[in-house]
Design brief:
Blueprint (H helix, E strand, L loop, with lengths): L13 E6 L5 H14 L3 E6 L6 H10 L7 H13 L2 H9 L2 E6 L2 H10 L4 H4 L11 E6 L2 H6 L11 H10 L9 E5 L4 H13 L14
Parallel strand pairs: 1-3, 1-4, 2-3, 4-5
Helix pairs in contact: 1-9, 2-3, 3-5, 5-8
């Protein structure tokens, strides 16, 4: 099996938060980074898209409704945004730094499939990215997510699209490294569950490569 690095003790971990918009994953990703640092380990937070990068700025303009874009081009931009962080992710993990991602390729695939793009094409554009050690899948109904503050501020935050994404994203699940989180629970309970799952991570094997999604 392809791997990203040789065996070593206490490498960093790649932790991905996925779910619908307004599912609470961004808040919990930030809290996890804080708890990791407070526990004595090193950690960084990486949100996707990275709206500060040249590619991310273009995505940001689209999401804010400032520009229009072909859906195929948009999908490739999201993938490119992640690949631009590949080297950084690998370096951090090799140095023992945990990388916590607020969204990853599973969002890109889910949204593009929900929009009707070809599945055989959508699923291959992120092959070669570092494979997460764990995906924390925040489960919340589209209705609950839509009722939370800020919903609708961006282009993809529509009830219809979120409902389609809610159907698609679970089909990408890989039980080998996906864990479901009840995002309807109280914030403190979610935070506790997330940190418990973090403490159970197995760092004994090298970071793997995504060969399929």
């Amino acid at each position: 099996m392809a791997t990203e690095q040789n065996d070593q003790e206490e490498r960093g971990a790649l932790i991905v938060f996925e779910g619908l918009d307004r599912s609470g994953k961004s808040t919990q990703a930030k809290r996890l980074v804080e708890k990791i640092i407070n526990s004595g380990r090193m950690a960084v937070l990486q949100a996707f898209p990275d709206r500060q990068s040249p590619v991310g700025e273009m995505i940001d303009r689209y999401l804010r409704g400032e520009i229009d874009m072909d859906e195929h081009a948009l999908h490739l931009l999201f993938s490119a945004d992640r690949f631009l962080k590949k080297k950084m992710i690998k370096q951090h993990i090799a140095q023992g730094v945990d990388v916590v991602c607020d969204r990853y390729c599973y969002s890109g695939v889910s949204y593009s499939l929900a929009k009707g793009l070809p599945e055989d094409w959508v699923r291959v554009t992120d092959q070669g990215l570092p494979k997460p050690d764990i995906v924390l899948f925040f489960q919340v109904s589209p209705e609950v997510a839509a009722s939370r503050g800020g919903f609708g501020n961006e282009r993809l935050e529509t009830a219809q699209l979120q409902a389609e994404v809610a159907k698609v994203m679970p089909t990408l699940r890989d039980d080998a490294f996906w864990k479901s989180v009840n995002a309807d629970a109280a914030l403190a309970a979610v935070e506790k569950e997330v940190f418990q799952l973090y403490t159970e991570l197995d760092r004994s094997k090298p970071l793997d490569v995504l060969e399929k999604i």
